[in-house]
Write a structure and sequence with these properties.
The protein is α/β, with parallel strands linked by helices and about 375 residues long. It contains 13 helices and twelve strands. The structure holds 3-isopropylmalic acid (IPM) and magnesium ion.
């Protein structure tokens, strides 16, 4: 029997609650798919800070590197926002450290319209028909990691600065992922940049075009990032894969949440590229939503983002795309059956929604 190791990191706020549900679904899928799962658990970000005085321990990084997949809940909370730690941006945030250590440069953030949730979106249903977008975000470079960065006093004023820098190989590798994803979907890649005003944007555009020569079957469109935000708001169904750097991808993936009815519905996979044959490096699977400290511990957090992240984990970490499609179908069934947490207009608990998805999965599988 094939076996895989999951490092489960609940993190902060509602994170541990949704990760527990993700593991429950993983167990159900694994037993159906004849897979053995080994689960390890650890603390991340604020929870790690409280226990160990660091946002992510070296032990946690090593366990992540040795695992097949890392399932993350959510990180952050106002009590940890102002803490400054030496050692660069990755030491400021547990998730950022893991992304850097695992070199998960490709952030896959799919968002689709769920017919059962159309009324929760700002869209007319006609605009959402067939909307199914994959935001591909560069995750380990750009504005969130480039040096120099810092804060000091200049001419007696508090001063802070960041840098957006990419070298051509960082752009090329994420572009390859974008074209490959587009090829496996509907064949269109929109690349978002600010080549009109940013040097890094000009290089981004040039390298994406160069990589595109290897994918003549994919239609490539360069758009300015501000225009992508506008067009995505106006006509979401026209987009297939949207490629953006770390900052633009962060913004665009939250915006894509509007298509799904709520940010709480969005899953993500952070990968060291797409798996090639049998070679796999550990990926991080996490819902895009935050830690929602205001509802932590109440049992009403929306688990769908995590359950859909489990689908991505079965697809990309365990090589089981069929199970991923079954999980997604089970989510659609549960939504149509009215299983909703309060944030998406229902009255069900996190656990009740999860159990409904598992029951639907068992029927489908
Ligand atoms: C996300 C989040 C993170 C990010 C934060 C928590 C560092 O917004 O995953 O989109 O900006 O990458
Ligand atoms: Mg974000």
């Amino acid at each position: 029997m094939t076996s895989f190791t999951i490092l489960a990191l609940g993190g902060d706020g509602i994170g541990p609650e949704v990760v527990a549900c993700g593991l429950k679904l993983s167990d159900a899928v694994a037993s159906q798919a004849q897979i053995r799962l080994h689960i390890q658990e650890d603390l991340l970000h604020g929870a790690a800070w409280q226990a160990y005085g660091t946002f992510c321990r070296d032990e946690t990084v090593r366990a992540a590197q040795a695992a097949d997949a890392v399932l993350v809940g959510a990180v952050g909370g106002p009590q940890w926002d102002g803490i400054r730690v030496a050692g660069g941006p990755e030491m400021q945030d547990g998730l950022m450290r893991l992304r850097k250590a695992l070199d998960t440069y490709a952030g896959l953030r799919p968002a689709r319209a769920w017919p059962a949730l159309t009324a929760l979106t700002p869209y007319k249903s006609t605009l959402l028909t067939g909307a199914d977008v994959m935001v591909l975000r560069e995750l380990t470079g750009g504005a969130f990691f480039s040096e120099p960065r810092g804060h000091d006093l200049r001419a007696g004023k508090r001063y802070a600065f960041d840098t957006t820098a990419y070298d051509e190989s960082e752009i090329a590798r994420i572009a390859h992922v974008g074209f490959s994803l587009a090829r496996s979907r509907r064949g269109t890649l929109v690349s978002a940049d600010k080549a009109n005003v940013m040097e890094s944007g000009m290089l981004w555009r040039q390298i994406v075009s160069e990589v595109g020569r290897d994918y003549p079957d994919v239609t490539l469109l360069h758009l300015y990032a501000d225009n992508v935000v506008y067009q995505l708001a106006r006509r979401p169904a026209d987009f297939d894969v949207i490629l953006g750097d770390n900052l633009f991808g962060d913004i665009l993936s939250d915006q894509a949440g509007a298509i799904a009815g709520s940010l709480g519905m969005l899953p993500s996979a952070c990968l060291h590229g797409l798996p090639q044959g049998r070679e796999r490096r550990p990926g991080i699977f996490e819902a895009v939503h935050g830690s929602a400290p205001d509802i932590a511990g109440k049992g009403i957090a929306n688990p769908y983002g995590t359950l859909l992240s489990v689908a991505l984990m079965f697809e990309y970490a365990f090589g089981q795309p069929l199970e991923a499609r079954r999980i997604e179908a089970a989510v659609a069934t549960a939504l149509e059956g009215g299983w909703r947490t309060p944030d998406i207009g229902g009255h069900h608990s996190t656990v009740a929604v999860t159990d409904a998805v598992i029951a639907a999965y068992r029927v489908i599988g």
